[in-house]
UniProtKB/TrEMBL annotation, chain A:
GO CC terms in record: plasma membrane
Annotated GO MF terms: transmembrane transporter activity
Name of the protein described by the UniProt record: ABC transporter permease
Main location: membrane
A Pfam family this chain is assigned to: BPD_transp_2
Organism: Comamonas flocculans
From TrEMBL, chain B:
Predominant subcellular localization, coarse grouping: membrane
Keyword NAD: no
Coiled-coil region: none
Stored InterPro entries: ABC_transp_permease
Protein name: ABC transporter permease
Biological source species: Comamonas flocculans
Length: 306, 357
């Protein structure tokens, strides 16, 4: 019986990796920019964070290093697509291919590296409560941060001037420009913020979720995070929920494998990816619904005065 | 301050010069990286740009790696020209390899030579099937092809793992997850002795010629391009964007699947979990660096193949990780994206006279 609270707890952890990245991409996409480099940013952040923790022993520094790695790569991407008007899809792809190679290259010496022991959490002693304790109260602070971030984004996007401007830039950059808002600067800030959150997700993955470094360990989570923005129809709460749902699918897959299920393990491993395909197909089935929810200028470049 | 000014028409000169400039930047960054790592940059460059072409054997190896890259890129070029973002060629390649491997495993010692044709066709069918899923989901359910094709890469790799760890595992293979090696009759013929280069290289070159004919000498090729650039205009002219979607995806699935078949029935000779080596992703770079043009892609495939061989040599000679290959490939695409700005824009100093040209 103890398995279920633990399964739930690990679902939240796995979901948080996806949620942090997907919420970052959401900010990014609300401004009208789609960054297919999420996978590359997460990989570089994962090794940056892991290496930092191995050398300094500080998780906080590790998370910051991950965020910095994500932000720097996002800035390079942003410079290309926002100021030089490069194709967003191709440039994002370049970022992913580069990130995959670069993280493997610099990470080769860390494959066997050992992490200092992880702290165990027990918030206010509530972790000792039956069922709820192990499920909810023994989580890493970043799990709660993911929820807080969602609440913050809902407030920011729909209740503040900053959010209004950000959405205006994503819906109609021409109008935002005419009103005197610096469209490209706003997009750049959104892209860098998105990169930093993808970086935080990558760091969380290699420092907390699976505390080790393996080449290509992000294993498509960046792409699933991208799918989650569509799945959540660009709304923070739905994105968070979707992330937990996919975290659950991942965990279910591990759980079934450990239970020695008769289903071939390879099929179970493929489950999250198959689920992404099925869910994408179901969500996208109604084109008008997608069009209504999607930021209208998503993927389109904007250059004032031409 | 510099600023960009939109050109009235894209520059033809820069369309060709931009990949060369991107290559120059990548080489420059390479020199910087070698120096930072305390390696002799000249030695480093030799490993990447001289060793792969200095002997007959080396040239053969160059051909072995350039073949799948070119084949896959040819199909991808059709996709990208019609604005369909199939980035899951790696998955189509893997499924092609599995299908081809399945047929090759059926061959016994007394099977006729015709089996080779069946092996290659099976690869084509496998690739088309995998790309067909993407086309179907985009056509019927409006699901974005970028994410679907990519997710199917991960699924394809698991299918391969299932086959080699499960039903197709060689019972005499000391429990290694691999099939038995294919019979000689099921293997594709080599072009010459003393080199591993095989008829795949000729097929790829023929494919490049066919693509040139298709794109620039047929109405169907023209319709495909119009459909990608301006769907509304294409509809008006009676060209179907649905037809373009299916054609492009099935074609690119076919070439990726064929590349997979040629790889397992050629240099590899059996199915192993190490079939997916990233050719499907590297071919995306080949397509872009080659400007989606058949001749350009031949050159780009050779260049990327040099990066592969250079990476392997850097590992054995310089003690650097093999992933150096992926770093340079990624850097090349990244710099290309930056340099491509010059195709559509001209760099001007702001404040310069407006009328000055």
């Amino acid at each position: 019986m103890d398995a279920y609270p633990l399964l739930f707890a690990s679902t939240l952890t796995a979901g948080t990796v996806l949620a942090l990245a997907a919420l970052g991409l959401l900010i990014n996409e609300k401004s009208g920019v789609v960054n297919l480099g999420a996978e590359g940013m997460m990989l570089c952040a994962a090794i940056a964070g892991f290496a930092t923790v191995v050398h300094t022993g500080s998780d906080t520094l590790g998370f910051l290093a991950g965020m910095a790695a994500g932000a720097v790569l996002a800035a390079a991407f942003g410079w290309l697509v926002i100021w030089l008007n490069a194709n967003q899809y191709a440039t994002g792809l370049a970022l992913t291919l580069f990130g995959a190679g670069f993280s493997a290259f610099v990470g080769i010496n860390y494959v066997q590296a050992q992490m200092p022991p992880r702290p165990r959490f027990n918030w206010l002693g509530l972790g000792d409560l039956p069922v709820i304790g192990p499920a909810l109260m023994r989580q890493h602070p970043l799990v709660y941060f993911g929820i807080a971030l969602t609440v913050f984004l809902i407030w920011m996007l729909y209740r503040t001037r900053v959010g209004l401007v950000l959405r205006a830039v994503g819906e109609s950059p021409e109008s935002a420009h005419a009103l005197g808002y610096p469209v490209r600067r706003i997009r750049m800030i959104a892209v860098v913020a998105g990169g930093a959150l993808c970086g935080l997700a990558g760091g969380f993955l290699s420092i907390i979720y699976t505390p080790l470094w393996v080449e290509g360990m992000v294993a498509g989570k960046g792409w699933i995070a991208l799918a989650l923005t569509t799945f959540g129809t660009w709304r923070p709460a739905r994105v968070l929920l979707g992330a937990y749902l996919f975290g659950g699918v991942t965990m279910l897959q591990f759980y079934l494998q450990s239970q020695g299920s008769p289903i071939p393990s390879q099929l179970l491993t493929a489950l999250p990816y198959l689920a992404t395909v099925v869910v994408l197909a179901l969500i996208s089935r109604n084109p008008t619904w997608i069009r209504v929810n999607m930021p209208a200028s998503l993927g389109k470049p904007f250059h004032p005065g031409s | 301050m510099l600023r960009l000014e939109l050109r009235p028409t894209p520059s033809r000169t820069w369309a060709w010069a931009s990949p060369l400039l991107a290559l120059a930047i990548t080489v420059l960054l390479g020199v910087l990286l070698f120096s930072l790592l305390g390696k002799d940059p000249v030695k480093g460059l030799m490993v990447f740009f001289w060793e792969p072409i200095k002997s007959r054997y080396a040239l053969g190896e160059l051909g072995v790696k350039a073949t799948p890259l070119l084949l896959i890129a040819l199909g991808l070029a059709v996709c990208f020209r019609s604005n369909i973002w199939n980035i899951g060629a790696e998955g189509q390649y893997v499924i092609g390899a599995i299908f081809a491997g399945g047929v090759a495993l059926l061959a016994g010692k007394e099977t006729g030579r015709w089996i080779v044709v069946a092996v290659l066709l099976a690869g084509v069918v496998g690739g088309m099937l995998w790309a067909g899923i993407v086309a179907l989901l985009r056509d019927r359910f409006n699901a974005g092809e970028i994410l679907v094709s990519l997710m199917l890469v991960y699924v394809a790799i698991q299918v391969l793992n299932y086959m080699v760890f499960g039903p197709w595992k060689d019972p005499m293979g000391y429990n290694f997850p691999q099939t038995r090696t294919f019979e000689a009759v099921a293997r594709i013929p080599r072009l010459m002795t003393g080199s591993r280069v095989n008829i795949g290289a000729l097929i790829a070159l023929a494919g490049a010629a066919l693509l040139w004919l298709y794109l620039f000498r047929t109405r169907a090729g023209y319709a495909l391009q119009v459909g990608g650039v301006a769907p509304a205009a294409a509809r008006y002219a009676g060209f179907s964007s649905r037809a373009a979607l299916w054609t492009a995806l099935l074609l690119s699935g076919a070439t990726a699947g064929l590349a997979g078949a040629l790889e397992v029935a050629g240099p590899v000779g059996q199915l192993t979990p190490y079939i997916p080596v990233g050719y499907g992703f590297a071919a995306i770079i080949v397509a872009f660096v080659g400007r989606l043009h058949p001749l350009g892609m031949v050159l780009a495939a050779i260049l990327m193949s040099m990066f592969y061989i250079g990476g392997e040599l850097a590992q054995s000679r310089l003690g650097l990780p093999k992933s150096l290959t992926d770093v340079f490939q990624g850097l090349l695409l990244f710099s290309l994206m930056a340099c491509d700005t010059l195709v559509n824009y001209r760099v001007r100093r702001s404040g310069a006279l407006k009328g000055a040209r």
